[in-house]
Amino acid sequence: MSAFAHIPVLVKETVEALAVEPGGRYIDCTLGAGGHAAAILEHSSPGGQLLGIDADPEAIKVAEAKLQAYSSSTLLINENFVNLQAICIKYDFQPVHGILFDLGLSSLQLDSNTRGFSFQHDAPLDMRLSPSQEITAADIINTSSEAELAHIIKTYGEEAYSRRIAHLIVQERPIAATLQLVQTIERAVGGRRARIHPATKTFQALRIAVNHELEYLEAALKQAINLLGFEGRLVVISYNSLEDRIVKQLMQRESKDCICPPGTPICICGHTACLRLITKRVITPSPVEVQLNPRSRSAKLRAAERIITQDESFKVAEKLNFLVGGKASGWRRPALLKKLRIAFSLP
Ligand SMILES: C[S@@+](CC[C@H](N)C(=O)[O-])C[C@H]1O[C@@H](n2cnc3c(N)ncnc32)[C@H](O)[C@@H]1O
Question: Which atom in ligand 1 lies closest to the alpha carbon of residue 217?
Fold first, then answer.
């Protein structure tokens, strides 16, 4: 298959949301075939630097070839982005101007005849992003209890027929290949669903479970926020509602000064906003982009900007603690900013 068969999604919007500038330092946590990385490098030259991460060694090879012209400005690492902070410490790559997550799978993975991600062609039920992971989709299918399977399919696939599907899987296992699983799901669901392929949700659920996608995303986003310098941008493109919910909730929470439960008379959380939302509304591909690249149809881009860095927030906490005699919590944003200006002798 061609190394360039993956068409990157929302490229112009991503470069804009990252506010890519010459000389900037960026991290692409989901390098894939290097499409977004190439655009970031193009707009950040001269002087730009990019750390590219992908759990899939095949993706690293493909991206390496694509980004050859920028080899002196790139560092490509075959790792899981759940280790983002450790990677940045190891390679002394922080703080950064922007971090991108373009979640999900690349066409290189979806179209592969050996990886088992797609229900459209037969392959072993693998679904691991990296061959170094131990648990495959076949392991989950063939060793989980019926209740565990139903839970996975319902939670990660939001599949209404999860129990019916899990029941038939247990009856028919061992199941080793994708098409055998597809036929089992089709029999379980019958003619009940017309809008999407009956196996779509179960395949999504298995992939998420095999790769711990949701837990790793949440952990990596938190690390990413702390790696951003002042006004650094975090941009995330997600492809399903479970991913998008995590991104949306985290960005919203981190852009609020107070996260006390509604109705709390005085703020007791001491939380300080460290992000400003760049995308008040989610950005989606235009109808033209969807027509040219149908795989972009479910993409949702959200972006936020770091408004106070980790170092600064420590300093602020210290100063405020000093200024208000250890009673820093309870300050709402305008009051906090006023104190901050005085503390740092700002105009
Ligand atoms: C949609 S593709 C990215 C495509 C890329 N933006 C491009 O323009 O070619 C998503 C990539 O993220 C990688 N990926 C997904 N989850 C990951 C994780 N937890 N750690 C590292 N890479 C991950 C996948 O292996 C895949 O290559």
Answer: 19
pTM of model > 0.70: yes
Long-range contacts of 159-162 (CB under 8 A, 24+ apart): 159/201, 159/202, 159/205, 161/188, 161/189, 161/192, 161/193
- How many A from CA of 30 to the centre of ligand 1? 3
Distance (Å) from CA 141 to ligand 1 centroid: 24
| Digitized pLDDT (tens) for each residue of the chain, 347 residues in all | 444 478 999 999 999 999 999 999 999 999 999 999 999 999 999 999 999 999 999 999 999 999 999 999 999 999 999 999 999 999 999 999 999 999 999 999 999 989 999 999 899 999 999 999 999 999 999 999 999 999 999 999 999 999 999 999 999 999 999 999 999 999 999 866 668 899 999 999 999 999 999 999 999 999 999 999 999 999 999 999 999 999 999 999 999 988 998 888 888 888 889 999 999 899 999 999 999 999 999 999 999 999 976 566 666 556 555 554 444 444 455 566 655 655 555 55
In short, whether 36's Cβ falls inside 6 Å of ligand 1 is yes
Query: From the CA of 145, how far away is ligand 1's center (Å)?
Result: 30
Q: Which atom of ligand 1 is nearest to the CA of 36?
A: 8
Beta bridge partners of 53: 77
Of 31, 67, 207, which is best to mutate to test ligand 1, by the most ligand atoms within 8 angstroms of its C-beta? 31
Q: How far is the CA of 45 from the centre of ligand 1 (A)?
A: 23
Atom of ligand 1 nearest to the CA of 11: 8
